Amino acid sequence: MAHRGLAMSEEEVFADFLRRVDLSGAVVAEIGGAFPTELIEQRGVARWYSVDPNREAARSGVREVIAVPAEEMPLPDSSVDAVFSCNAFQFLDVGRTLQQAARVLKPGGLLYSHFGPIWSAVDGHQLEYVSYQGRDLAFWRDTLLPPWAHLAYDRAELRELLRSGMPEDLADLLVWHVHDSTTINRSFFEDYVDAAVRSGLQWCEVSASEHLDYEIDTPALDSALLREVEPNRLAAELTRERGRPTTVGIRDVLMVLRKPAA
Q1: In this protein, which residues make up the domain named Methyltransferase type (predicted)?
Q2: Helix or strand or coil: residue 163?
Q3: What is the pTM for the complete model shown?
């Protein structure tokens, strides 16, 4: 289901989660990120596990940070009332993560995940967790890559294009991020849907949006090397390459799934 306003702030995502789950006395596993301890304690949470390999293991109040990948979640079977995630699923092996979520959720427990941009988006390269000259780059601020750069250009084409408008070392860094970085999972919308179906969890809601909430203003690149990308044609090409229907444009996703009651 398309939803133009799906790009939400972390506060809006958490508020939407609260409308669906009663956190009083609940045990929650958070995948990626770490909402403020004070905020979750106000809701009467019994235990909040933040599963994130990029943070240091720690315990503070009801929160415990578990510094391992979500695909290796070390929680007992049927031990949590809800799994919550904001802006993390585009970095994960979604199939393995949903299998872990299905395992640790109690019967009737809810998984809530809001994430993006995903690989099928116009900015699905998600330039992030990359540093250049001592500064962290961010796709919404450092709009260095043209629309559809990760899908419409091969490695050599993208390198030639980017070198026409920026230093070679920066261009090469961006090409590496698009084609070689292991930070992003490069999953299309259909891949997330398939993973959800295979997880054994029941669908409550799966919403998607193509809305871009910032302007892509790239450096001056050689216009002779730039392509006018037509999304429908790009989707057809990817469908042939992948051997399965593939949609482009979808950027942000809300996935709400429930473990069947015993």
Answers
A1: 32-112
A2: helix
A3: 0.93
